[in-house]
């Protein structure tokens, strides 16, 4: 498809290739510094006649951040093979084939970057640190759920019960963590229990249903789509029955305790001056820690290696002596634990819950994983890709809302992205 854009093959030493990273990174840092100084009126005052400095908002900060990241990447790779510039591995090849592979691999990311530029042109206020932190905060619980569902995708399965487990965890935790003075308490006579007891009970409830999913898939070789679909219906029914208990009678649960709400609403480094730094949500470091834990599990443990092996070829995994039953059970139980954590944090962030919480979350999580490079055929996927997939979806959704795009059109765009991502995944699979 790219034959009309024929590119003559060219080899570039890898040391020079990463030197270009440092060069581009340094240029962006310098440009960001110039714009910042000009905006503050310290130097380059004539620049204001060329650029409307009031409409660039926090663009200088983002340029410096991107430039520093590129420069750091270039430096790390240049010195990663013994500390000498000339001791790196094979040359980097530029050709029509590598260009086509690059466009196929990063098509969604490139489309998102174009969309971000368009949004910034339409509404420059999108270039604010506050907006970026809002996007990271909204991505945090979604990322935790996506990390859970990626385990089921890595074995060429899926988990349709994820969203309902999120709702179950939210309802159970909030029902037992209301203030004593709240008029419509779920349990009027329940004393103020330790904060972590209801949270652990909510996560444990999810893990029980996760074990049921794993048992149906591992013991009866039931397709995960059917097994988790059945469990999804059961969980929603159980959650609705619990939610309908008197005296609550299906009323939204509110009045949560301040210590519980703090788990999802606390912010660090909040600026004291008006218009100062908006602060970093506690959800962001929580999601980051969970990412590190999941990365370690997938890349540094026997269990993680078994997950990839089962997803790549289950028969070969059995021949290699892997306990497939135990591994699949562990996969679904671990995934449900992450759903439970995501549900608890989402309830804390919104300070309430209903039995409808989490509806459709599993589809967004699956889509984010696929966009992030997790193959539906199993055995392929990285934590970094999942992080990028979640961020891509959140940026697109937040950005379209920011410029007041109709919710109906947002659904159309989301559907197109999912279809394109799956088509790209299947294309890469056929090539291999």
Features:
single chain, 432 residues, ABC transporter involved in vitamin B12 uptake, BtuC, two-stranded antiparallel sheet, 16 helices
Give an overview in words:
- A two-stranded antiparallel sheet has the order 1-2. A two-stranded antiparallel ribbon has the order 3-4.
- 66% of the residues lie in helices and 2% in strands.
- The chain is an all-alpha fold.
- The longest helix is centred in the last third of the chain and has 27 residues, at 324-350.
- It has helices at residues 14-39, 59-78, 96-105, 107-122, 129-154, 162-175, 196-220, 224-243, 258-265, 283-300, 302-312, 314-319, 324-350, 361-371, 383-402, 407-431, and strands at residues 10-12, 92-94, 267-268, 280-281.
Order of helices and strands: EHHEHHHHHHHEEHHHHHHH
Overall CATH class of the largest domain: Mainly Alpha
Instruction: Return the structural class.
Output: mainly alpha
Query: N-to-C terminal Cα separation, in Å?
Result: 18 Å
β content, as a range? under 5%
Quick overview of this protein structure:
The protein is an all-alpha fold and 432 residues long. 66% of the residues lie in helices and 2% in strands.
Give me the secondary-structure topology.
Layout: E1 10-12, H1 14-39, H2 59-78, E2 92-94, H3 96-105, H4 107-122, H5 129-154, H6 162-175, H7 196-220, H8 224-243, H9 258-265, E3 267-268, E4 280-281, H10 283-300, H11 302-312, H12 314-319, H13 324-350, H14 361-371, H15 383-402, H16 407-431
Antiparallel strand pairs: 1-2, 3-4
Helix pairs in contact: 1-2, 4-15, 5-10, 5-13, 5-14, 5-15, 6-7, 6-8, 6-13, 7-8, 7-13, 9-13, 10-11, 11-13, 14-15, 14-16
């Amino acid at each position: 498809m790219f034959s009309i854009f024929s590119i003559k093959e060219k080899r570039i030493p890898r040391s020079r290739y990463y030197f270009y990273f440092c060069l581009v990174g340094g240029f962006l840092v310098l440009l960001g510094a110039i714009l910042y100084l000009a905006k503050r009126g310290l130097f380059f005052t004539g620049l204001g006649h060329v650029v409307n400095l009031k409409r660039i908002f926090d663009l200088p900060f983002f340029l410096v951040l991107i430039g520093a990241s590129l420069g750091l990447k270039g430096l790390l790779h240049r010195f990663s093979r013994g500390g000498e510039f000339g001791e790196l591995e094979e040359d980097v090849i530029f050709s029509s084939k590598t260009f086509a592979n690059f466009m196929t691999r990063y098509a969604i990311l490139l489309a998102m970057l174009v969309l971000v530029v368009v949004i910034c042109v339409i509404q420059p206020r999108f270039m604010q640190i506050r907006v970026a932190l809002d996007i990271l905060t909204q991505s945090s619980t979604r990322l935790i759920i996506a990390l859970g569902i990626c385990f089921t995708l890595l074995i060429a399965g899926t988990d349709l019960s994820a969203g309902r487990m999120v709702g179950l965890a939210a309802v159970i935790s909030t029902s037992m963590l209301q203030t004593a003075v709240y008029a419509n308490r779920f349990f009027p006579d329940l004393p103020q229990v330790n904060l972590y007891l209801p949270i652990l009970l909510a996560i444990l409830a999810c893990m029980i249903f996760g074990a049921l999913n794993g048992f149906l898939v591992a013991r009866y070789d039931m397709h995960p789509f059917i097994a988790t679909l059945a469990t999804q219906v059961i969980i929603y029914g159980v959650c609705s029955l619990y939610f309908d208990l008197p005296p609550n009678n299906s009323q939204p649960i509110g009045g949560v305790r301040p210590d519980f709400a703090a788990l999802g609403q606390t912010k660090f480094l909040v600026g004291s001056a008006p218009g100062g730094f908006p602060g970093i949500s506690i959800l962001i470091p929580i999601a980051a820690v969970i990412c590190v834990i999941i990365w370690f599990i997938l890349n540094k443990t026997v269990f993680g290696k078994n997950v990839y092996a089962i997803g790549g070829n289950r028969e070969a995994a059995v021949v290699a002596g892997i306990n497939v039953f135990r591994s699949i059970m562990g996969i679904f139980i671990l995934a449900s634990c992450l759903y439970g954590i995501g549900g608890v944090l989402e309830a804390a962030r919104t300070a309430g819950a209903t039995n409808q919480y989490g509806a459709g979350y599993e589809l967004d999580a699956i889509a984010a994983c696929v966009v992030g490079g997790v193959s539906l055929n199993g055995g392929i996927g990285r934590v970094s890709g999942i992080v990028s997939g979640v961020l891509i979806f959140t940026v697109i959704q937040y950005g379209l809302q920011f410029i007041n795009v109709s919710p109906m059109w947002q659904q159309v765009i989301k559907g197109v992205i999912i279809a394109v991502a799956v088509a790209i995944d299947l294309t890469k699979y056929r090539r291999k």
